[in-house]
Design a protein that fits this description.
Blueprint: E1 9-14, H1 17-24, H2 28-33, E2 37-40, H3 54-65, E3 70-74, H4 83-88, H5 92-105, E4 110-112, H6 122-133, E5 139-144, H7 150-161, E6 167-175, H8 181-195, E7 201-207, E8 223-227, H9 229-238, E9 247-250, E10 269-273, E11 277-282, H10 289-298, H11 309-318, H12 327-352
């Protein structure tokens, strides 16, 4: 079975409750169209789960995937890490702990990520490739857009694997803003051209979702609208000669970095992702909160309905029945709406090409 055939969207998700909920509420057809990267994180601590075991996240994720293929990885965000995730990222003996975890704890639908070191360690790469390809049909690599060992990595894979047909390559730009976009685009093109063709799948991913929507170049206190540079990046990369097969990836409208040094009080906000932009309405609780934000969003002239859980939540709240009043709930709504929207955009573009 070719696990990646027909996949045209590679969203990067973390195993936080809000992101798991957003994925769980997707339609079956959207789930079928995705090849998600799941960054395993610590789980929510409880009396029965005092250490925040990663296995709790694995169980939830694989239940909602229901046998669908996905790419397994581990978070590097301090706020979502614990001793177990640190152990999984220990580079000792070719990431021995990560290899053991994949082989013992993840189901056969998982496509393992091969972790890289700096400087490049050929032996580490090959040990992981051998272990993972004994149980999976594909392996994945996530490299920064400015990765300087691309050619060396590809040469090693071609020599040892006999080709790249079992390899998924994700060129990851992390957070991209207006001021860094040009460099991210140039680096992405250079890295993907250096990697060449022949992969099972090539993708480029980034996130332009900010730490705060009221930062410069984003929006105002009650309303804002901004371009989704993750969409622009993949479209601009695909326009380059030889890169037309590169697949769209993103962070599902989640900021990809830790919120260090930022302490703010949450203002109720309803986000509406469109094909290439996002707009929002936000109001403090005494001024209307989620009820008014949803009403304004739903009746905004730019609003475009879509058959998905995210849309139904906004529609319900605009009608006076708010389904959730926590920030996590509305993050789930945003992610679900975005994944559904982008899947729809990408599939339509493919049919019309």
């Amino acid at each position: 079975m070719n696990e990646v055939a027909g996949k045209r969207y590679v969203p990067i998700l973390r195993s936080r409750d809000a992101e798991i909920r957003a994925y769980a509420e997707l339609s079956g057809s959207v789930k079928d169209a995705l090849l998600p990267v799941v960054e395993y994180t610590k789980s929510r601590r409880t009396k029965k789960n005092t250490e925040g075991s990663v296995s709790v996240c694995v169980s939830k994720i694989e239940e909602h995937l229901a046998g669908r293929s996905y790419i397994a990885d581990v978070t590097t965000m301090d706020s979502l890490s614990n001793a177990e995730t640190a152990m999984l990222l220990d580079a000792d003996n070719g990431f021995r702990n990560w290899r053991a975890f994949v082989l013992s704890s993840l189901n056969s639908a998982c496509i393992p990520t091969v972790h890289l070191t700096d400087p490049f360690d050929e032996r580490s790469v090959l040990v992981q490739c051998k272990a993972f390809l004994n149980r999976s049909t594909h392996i994945a690599f996530r490299i920064p857009v400015d990765y300087d060992s691309t050619s060396r990595l590809v040469d090693v894979l071609k020599r040892e694997l006999g080709g790249l047909e079992q390899v998924i390559l994700i060129c990851d730009g992390g957070y991209v803003s207006k001021s860094t976009y040009a460099a991210a685009l140039a680096d992405s093109k250079q890295t993907l051209v250096a990697a060449g063709a022949g992969f099972a799948l090539r993708a480029v991913a980034c996130s332009s979702f900010p730490k705060s929507v009221v930062l410069p170049d984003y929006g105002g206190d009650e309303y804002g609208k901004f371009e989704l540079l993750e969409v622009k990046l993949s479209e601009d990369v695909r326009a380059e000669h030889g890169l037309g097969d590169v697949v769209h990836g993103d962070y599902a409208l989640v900021h990809p970095e830790d919120f260090k040094g930022i302490v703010t009080s949450w203002v109720p906000r309803v986000d509406v992702p469109l094909d290439q932009t996002l707009f929002y309405h936000r109001y403090r609780r005494p001024n209307g909160g989620y009820d008014l934000a949803a009403d304004k969003a739903f009746h905004d002239p730019d609003y475009v309905a879509l058959d998905c859980w995210g849309h139904e939540n906004i529609k319900s709240a605009a009608g006076g029945a708010v389904q959730g009043r926590s920030p996590a709930h509305w993050i789930s709504v945003r992610i679900n709406f975005h994944l559904s929207r982008q899947s729809n955009r990408i599939e339509l573009a493919y049919l019309l090409r």
